[in-house]
């Protein structure tokens, strides 16, 4: 085994084959929508309905997609490496759950679109329907405070301590499907 500890970073390109749009390609999501309007706390504070509608639309595109060969292969690699005494940390910028459905354990540094987060108390909750201003938080009871559990521009990615620790211990770093641009 050449590398005992592998760190793999994945981005939108790994889910493109499953039918999900990327962000930075020609015709990608950021070519059609303003980052400032739909992916920032300022945009949410200005027009929360617009932001919630954008994420409801994005979430709806995830419903019929399936993990592709890359998701499955990464899940198999992770299991195979663990059986041989190594480790594969998969960290994704994606907010979909295709890695998990492909058999992998994943660090979601940009959150998960299938979850909502209270803007006030940060409680997380899975949700099946659409987010709206009428949706209340089950933890603190506030109505209108549930937002998508995604990291917006200007916010710190999630699990950074865990990510830094895994990177420092890694013998090999692999980047798949990400432009590296923010």
Automatic annotation (TrEMBL):
SUPFAM superfamilies: DHS-like NAD/FAD-binding domain
Residues reported to bind Zn(2+): 118, 121, 137, 140
Record key words, sorted: Metal-binding, NAD, Transferase, Zinc
Highest taxon of the lineage: Eukaryota
The Deacetylase sirtuin-type domain, residue ranges: 1-182
Signal sequence residues: none
InterPro entries named among the record's database cross-references: DHS-like_NAD/FAD-binding_dom, NAD-dep_sirtuin_deacylases, Sirtuin, Sirtuin_cat_small_dom_sf, Ssirtuin_cat_dom
A single GO molecular function term of this UniProt record: NAD+ binding
Coiled-coil stretches: none
Active-site residues annotated for this sequence: 110 (proton acceptor)
Protein name: Deacetylase sirtuin-type domain-containing protein
Species annotation: Beta vulgaris subsp. vulgaris (Beet)
